[in-house]
Every structure is written in structure tokens, then in C-alpha cells.
Design goal:
Elements: E1 3-6, E2 11-13, E3 16-18, E4 22-25, E5 30-32, E6 35-43, E7 46-48, E8 51-59, E9 64-66, E10 69-70, E11 74-78, E12 83-85, E13 88-90, E14 94-97, E15 102-104, E16 107-109, E17 112-116, E18 120-122, E19 125-126, E20 130-135, E21 142-147
Parallel strand pairs: 1-4, 2-5, 3-6, 4-6, 5-7, 6-8, 7-9, 8-10, 8-11, 9-12, 10-13, 11-14, 12-15, 13-16, 14-17, 15-18, 16-19, 17-20
Antiparallel strand pairs: 20-21
């Protein structure tokens, strides 16, 4: 279990996170080309070109994740105040946008995008049919629609 800490003004490139590993990107820090193989990235700074093969990426308030690719069994969670741009959501993977979180330009390639009440998802594109689900408060009610391929 290794922890990588990226502080303000620092850039960390090409890290691979195995199961149990953590990368914490603080405000003002930048992580590029991280590969997550069962680990966890907590992003309150800037994360670009991340690949999630298994595990999680949390985009915290003030954090930005761009050009993330999410594969089967992996998740990207966009928290309140966080922004994800250009995420590719492949089959078996999930992107969750919490209230006041923002996702723009997602490419839904067989995966699922969940938008909680108050979350924003815009300019999404799909390469296959996908499910868009909106949760009401506390996730007790879920409304889903199936969108056709574009």
C-alpha cells in the first residue's frame, strides 16, 4: 500500500496505482497519465489522461479530471464542486455525478452515467445504447431512461 501525495505546484506523471494504493492530488497539484489498477485517486487538483482499469477516481470540490478512460469494474465519482470533462465510460463502468458536480462531454461507450439530483451532465455522446439514471434525494428513488445510440 503506497500513497502518492501531489501538492500545490507539483506534477506527477505516469504513476500506476495497484490495489490498496492511493494518489492524493491536492489543490494546485497535477497528476498526468495515472493508471489505476484497483487503487484510488482522490483529485482536488488537476488530473489528466487517467486510465481506470479497476478502482476509483473521486473528483473533489475544486478538482478537475479531463480525458479519463474508465473500464469495466471501475468508477469515476464527481463530487459537489468537482468537474469531469471528456470521460470515456466503457462497458461495465460507471460515472456518478453527485449534486452540484459537473460532467461535460462524456463519451458513453456501453457504460452507465448516473446523475444525482442537482448534478449536471452536458454534451454527452454515446457509441452504444446506455442508461441515464437520475436519483432523487438519498438515492431512494431512481428514474432511468434508455437512450438510443447516436
Amino acid at each position: 500500500m503506497t500513497t502518492f501525495l501531489v501538492t500545490s505546484g507539483q506534477t506527477l506523471s505516469g504513476v500506476t496505482l495497484a490495489s490498496g494504493d492511493t494518489e492524493a492530488v491536492l489543490f494546485g497539484g497535477t497528476a498526468t497519465s495515472t493508471i489505476i489498477n484497483g487503487g484510488f485517486q482522490d483529485d482536488a487538483g488537476t488530473a489528466t489522461n487517467t486510465t481506470i482499469n479497476g478502482g476509483y477516481q473521486f473528483v473533489e470540490s475544486g478538482g478537475t479530471a479531463s480525458n479519463t478512460t474508465v473500464y469495466s469494474g471501475a468508477e469515476q465519482l464527481v463530487m459537489s464542486g468537482g468537474t469531469a470533462a471528456g470521460t470515456t465510460i466503457n462497458s461495465g463502468s460507471i460515472e456518478i455525478i453527485e449534486s452540484r458536480g459537473t460532467a461535460t462531454g462524456a463519451i458513453i461507450n456501453g457504460g452507465q452515467q448516473y446523475v444525482n439530483s442537482g448534478g449536471v451532465a452536458s454534451n454527452r455522446r454515446s457509441t452504444a445504447a446506455y442508461r441515464l439514471c437520475r436519483w432523487a434525494a438519498l438515492r431512494e428513488i431512481r428514474r432511468c431512461t434508455v437512450a438510443k445510440s447516436s
